[in-house]
Structure formats: C-alpha cells, structure tokens
Design a protein that fits this description.
With 351 residues, the protein is an alpha/beta fold. It is built from eleven helices and 14 strands.
Length: 351
C-alpha cells in the first residue's frame, strides 16, 4: 500500500523537525518534503505529488492563509492548519476553515507531556482522515432567507422550537452555509455542538455572528435560552438544555463531565437533554464529522419525545462519519446536501 505523502510547511526548523520525527516511523505516512514558508510550499507542490499538506498559520513572507488560498483555487488538495493557542491565530484559523482547509491542530503546549501526546495522536489521525476526504469547495448559500412567522401570544424571548445541530470535521464551513438561512423571525433557538479545541469556539461564534440573521454567541452556564439566538457549546464543556419552572423557559447548563462518544462537548449529551424539553417542535441535525457522536443521543431523543432528524449527505460532507452512522441506524427522516439543510429545517417547523 502506498504511503500518504505529506508536505510539512512551517517557518520553525524545530517544529518541522518535531512533525517529521512524529511521522518518520509511520507505516501509513511519509514526509515527502519540507518548506519554511508558503511560497516555497507552492513551488514544491508544482514538482511533487503530495497527498496532504500540514500548514503553519503564521509565517514570514507568504503566510499559511495566503498559501491556502492559492492551493484551493489552483490545485485543491487537503490542507491541515497547524495553529498556536493565541487569540489572533484562533481568528485566522477560523478564516482558513472558511477558505477550505480540511481541519486544524493546535500546537503542543511547552512543557506538557500529555499535550505532546495529544498532538502526536491528532496529527496522525487527521492526516489519514484528510487523505480520504472529498473536497467539496466553497459554495456559500446565496438563496433567499425563508420566513417563518412568530407564534402569536409569545413574547420575543419565548422559545417555541429548538433546533440542535452537531458537527465536527468540516463543520465550520458547513455551518456558514446553513445558519444564515434561518430568519431572525423564527420563534426558536439553535443549539450547536461543534468539536473544536479550547479558545476556538468563541472565534467561530464571532465569525458566524457577522453572517447570520440570529444573534450568535458562545453559550454560558445558567444562561436563559432565547428565541432568535444561536448558542455554540464551549470547548471542553458538555451543553444541556434544561426546562425552568416557568412554562416555555429554558436554561443552558454546562459541565465538565466525562467525555461521551469520545468528545466533550458531545452531541449525544445535547440531543439526549432535549428529550426533557417540551418545546412544540424539535429538529435535530447531524452534519459532516468523524466518528459517530450524535447517533445515541438522537435515538434517545426520538424515543423520549420525538423530533425531526436531518442529516447531511455524503456528497457534500467532508467526512461522512457522524451523519452516515445515524443514517445507517435508521434514525434520520431527511438526507440532503448542505445547501438545502437550512430550508429543510424550516420545512420541519411548518405547522
């Protein structure tokens, strides 16, 4: 079996050596070339057959974002961004996912052995995953925003519907094509679990807030759920929706309980919690992502109180793991491409 040929791009000689050292004994992966900046990487790509690129975000000369744009526009191959934990790099990393990067990994924290092992594990896993993905390109949704009338007799914050969305690899780009379709008039709230490292969900929320008709924010513990808002789970915290004593009022609870389905936050945890939330309608959506997170929670939600379940199709998914598992288990009512998910959500809310 041919090994996956990787181009490692980083201005740090030390970091290039770290990545090369991690991959040198892999039976599946081969470091085919090294580059110190984006311009050198583009020259190598003209000459070498490369399957996956790992790309540092910040570099002198042509940085990772600039090089990524050229790669996506000219000869698209899977790119994994390598990011620091800084606020600035979190913002730039979210931009890279919008442009077309398949995924990203945060650099290991200095002096933390456990974090180095995390980086080593993720690097290998994500390179193998990236070598198998189907690049779908950028196709922002340009269709009309559909109208859903507010429920009569409810105040502006009352929640008639809950729309719960789970996503992982490829999710930030998919969310940018789904969430802007939901109109500001909807009498409901949208709860999102997107698998991301700490510090990145806030940047994702800020980015989505510039694109959407509803207010997008990173969820806070004990916060009241209001209609017309998107709530994105914080990294490393499970997110649940819990009814309050007042009819039609709900709050968000965050906790750092054990990982579920390998994740914290877990889509399973969010979906299962909605089984105790007596909204008029609940819509559960599973989009692109590795693994099977969401399927068990969806099964429990359907058993407890029912919901409309929508899954992203294989053709428009970067990775078909999460939606594919739910489809195989017979839990999904509608399978559709990413650009039709927003419309299908709104159809599910129609009386």
């Amino acid at each position: 079996m041919d090994r996956i040929k990787v181009l490692v791009v980083d201005d740090s000689v030390f970091m290039r050596g770290v990545i090369k050292g991690i991959l040198k004994n892999s039976e599946e992966i081969e470091v085919a070339a090294l580059a110190g900046n984006g311009a050198d990487a583009l020259e190598i790509l003209k000459q070498e057959k490369i399957d996956v690129v790992t790309m540092d975000v910040e570099m002198p000369g042509m940085n990772g974002l600039e090089a990524l744009r050229v790669i996506i526009e000219t000869a698209p191959i899977p790119v994994i961004m390598i990011s620091s934990h800084t606020r600035r790099e979190a913002v730039v990393t979210i931009q890279s996912l919008d442009i077309g990067a398949v995924d990203f990994i945060t650099k290991p924290s200095a002096g933390l052995n456990n974090d180095f092992y995390r980086f080593k594990r993720e690097l290998k896993q994500k390179i193998v995953m990236a070598s198998k993905v189907r690049l779908v390109g950028r196709r922002p949704h340009n269709g009309p925003v559909l109208k859903v009338p507010k429920a009569e007799g409810l105040n502006g914050d009352s929640v008639r519907y809950i729309i719960a969305i789970g996503s992982s690899t490829g999710g930030p780009m998919a969310l940018q094509r789904v969430l802007p379709v939901i109109p500001g008039s909807v009498a409901g709230a949208v709860m999102v679990v997107q698998h991301m490292p700490p510090g990145f969900t806030k940047s994702l929320a800020e980015r989505l807030d510039t694109l959407c008709h509803l207010k997008v924010r990173e969820a806070q513990d004990m916060e009241q759920v209001k209609a017309g808002h998107y709530y994105i789970a914080q990294r490393d915290y499970h997110m649940r929706v819990v009814p309050r004593a007042c009819e039609g009022e709900y709050i968000i609870r965050l906790d750092r309980g054990a990982a579920v389905s390998g994740h914290r936050p877990s889509v399973d945890v969010l979906f299962e919690s909605l089984g105790q939330v007596p909204t008029e309608k609940t819509v559960a959506v599973l989009m692109t992502g590795m693994g099977s997170d969401g399927s068990e929670g969806l099964a429990k939600l359907k058993k407890l109180r029912g919901c409309s379940a929508i899954a992203q199709d294989k053709e428009s998914s970067i990775v078909f793991g999460m939606p594919g598992t739910a489809i195989k288990k017979g839990l999904v009512d509608k399978v559709t491409d990413v650009d039709s998910i927003g419309e299908e959500i709104l159809k599910s809310l129609e009386v």
